[in-house]
């Protein structure tokens, strides 16, 4: 590249003007600076995308959680998109007469088709798993319908905007893309509204869980950890989108726009990975032995209290139909709790395999069998607790 392009002052200026303008950029020099900064951000974001691809594959193999496919798809397509940009920037001197509206533009549109949209639909699935146990079916369905509608609107705007891209040439970047910006604002507004709605539902679910699950102290820490992490991630997502979309709108038409797009894309994928990794990471911590002795004693104290309460409740045969459901590992939803919706003044436990809860049984023989199963499970819990306590002491 011609060194004269990056000179800060002209040779025909006197020494005083050189000293005065030594730290000032002309428009041409400032654009060159933005192009270089954009290329640095391009390489950095490509490295991040490659990391997310590897982590997604690793998590799918270790946990079997197919929800990581959302992150894998988005990160892989973003990686292909950035790799193409890096290639054409490096090979700029060899593609002086290359038509950027052919293969380059086609590959750009294909690789850009699925690097944002899967994350939007993952948010819908995320809300479904989080809200499963805390709302009535009609309310939960309304939440999913509204969230899906926002994601669908975002997808339509995204693909309409993708059609508006056309190839262009740049002296520094070689083949680049430009956009008519006809649908750009629609993408930004719909994406922000979608994130606001998701954050509102997660916060509402947190208060709902605290209100209804005070008696489940052993599992309450897991619920709080999941929801607190989700709220923090959605707050970061919302603030990042507002800030970066504002910067994109302010700097539209100027070089270096990919700096903000790649920066926002890395943040979105990182937050998605945190959301996906909450449950596997928390389960790994719960499987490990407690290191803190104080936490260990408190854990078994709560377990003993819970078993004593269960034994007292099961001895009262007259109140069999009013027993509140306990934690059930077979229950649906990411938080692994049975539904706590009341039906006719009683808690309705939807899982018929739950040995503790009320399932609408009116037959005396079935009630007797249910009580016998309760006694059996209670004895097993007490024996396991005694063995564990003996080992720890």
Helices and strands, with pairings:
Layout: H1 15-21, H2 27-63, H3 68-90, H4 103-111, H5 117-131, H6 137-163, E1 165-170, E2 174-179, H7 184-212, H8 217-250, H9 257-287, H10 293-315, E3 342-343, E4 346-347, H11 364-392
Antiparallel strand pairs: 1-2, 3-4
Helix pairs in contact: 2-3, 2-9, 3-4, 3-5, 3-9, 5-6, 5-7, 6-7, 7-8, 8-9, 10-11
Task: Give the name of the CATH architecture of the largest domain.
Answer: Up-down Bundle
State the shape. Answer: elongated
Number of beta strands: 4
Q: How many angstroms does the end-to-end distance come to?
A: 74 Å
Strand order of the largest sheet: 1-2
Unreliable sequence segments: 1-23, 289-294, 317-333, 335-365, 385-393
Mean pLDDT across every amino acid position: 71
Give the C-level CATH assignment of the largest domain.
Mainly Alpha
CATH fold description of the largest domain: Rhopdopsin 7-helix transmembrane proteins
The assigned structural class equals mainly alpha
- How would you sum up the major sheet? 2 strands, antiparallel
Q: Could you say how many structural domains there are in total?
A: 2
- Number of continuous helical runs: 11
Task: Look at the structure and name the CATH superfamily of the largest domain.
Answer: Rhodopsin 7-helix transmembrane proteins
Radius of gyration, in Å, reads: 29 Å
What percent of residues adopt helix (DSSP H or I)? 55-70%
Question: What's the SSE pattern?
Answer: HHHHHHEEHHHHEEH
Q: Approximately what portion of the residues adopt beta-strand conformation?
A: under 5%
Protein name: G-protein coupled receptors family 1 profile domain-containing protein
Keywords: Membrane, Transmembrane, Transmembrane helix
Organism: Piromyces finnis
Transmembrane segments: 33-54, 66-83, 103-122, 142-161, 192-210, 231-253, 259-276
């Amino acid at each position: 590249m011609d060194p004269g392009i990056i000179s800060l002052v002209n040779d025909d200026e006197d020494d005083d003007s050189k000293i005065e303008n030594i730290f000032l950029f002309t428009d041409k020099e400032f654009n060159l600076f933005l192009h270089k900064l954009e290329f640095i951000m391009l390489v950095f974001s490509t490295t991040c995308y490659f990391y997310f691809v590897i982590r997604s594959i690793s998590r799918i193999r270790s946990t079997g959680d197919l929800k990581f496919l959302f992150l894998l798809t988005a990160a892989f397509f973003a990686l292909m998109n950035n790799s193409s940009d890096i290639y054409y920037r490096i090979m700029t001197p060899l593609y002086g007469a290359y038509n950027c509206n052919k293969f380059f533009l086609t590959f750009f549109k294909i690789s850009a088709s699925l690097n944002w949209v899967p994350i939007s639909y993952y948010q819908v699935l995320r809300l479904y798993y989080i809200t499963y146990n805390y709302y009535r079916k009609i309310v939960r369905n309304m939440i999913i319908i509204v969230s899906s509608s926002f994601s669908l609107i975002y997808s339509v705007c995204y693909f309409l905007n993708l059609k508006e891209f056309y190839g262009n040439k740049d002296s520094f970047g070689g083949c680049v893309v430009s956009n008519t910006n006809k649908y750009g604002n629609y993408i930004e507004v719909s994406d922000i509204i979608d994130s606001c709605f998701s954050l509102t539902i997660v916060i509402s679910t947190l208060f709902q869980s605290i209100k209804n699950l005070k008696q489940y102290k052993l599992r309450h820490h897991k619920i709080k950890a999941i929801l607190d992490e989700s709220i923090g991630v959605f707050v970061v997502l919302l603030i990042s989108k507002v800030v970066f979309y504002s910067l994109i709108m302010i700097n539209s038409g100027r070089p270096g726009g990919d700096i903000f797009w790649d920066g926002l894309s890395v943040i979105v994928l990182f937050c998605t990975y945190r959301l996906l990794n909450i449950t596997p990471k928390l389960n790994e911590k719960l499987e490990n032995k407690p290191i803190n002795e104080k936490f260990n004693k408190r854990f078994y104290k709560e377990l003993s209290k819970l078993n004593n309460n269960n034994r007292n409740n099961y001895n009262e045969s007259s109140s069999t139909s009013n027993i509140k459901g306990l934690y059930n590992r077979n229950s649906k939803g990411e938080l692994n709790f049975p539904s706590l919706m009341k039906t006719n003044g009683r808690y309705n436990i939807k899982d018929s395999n739950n040995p503790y809860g009320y399932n609408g049984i009116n037959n005396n023989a079935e009630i007797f069998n249910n009580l016998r199963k309760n006694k059996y499970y209670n004895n097993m819990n007490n024996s396991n607790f005694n063995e564990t306590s003996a080992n720890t002491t």
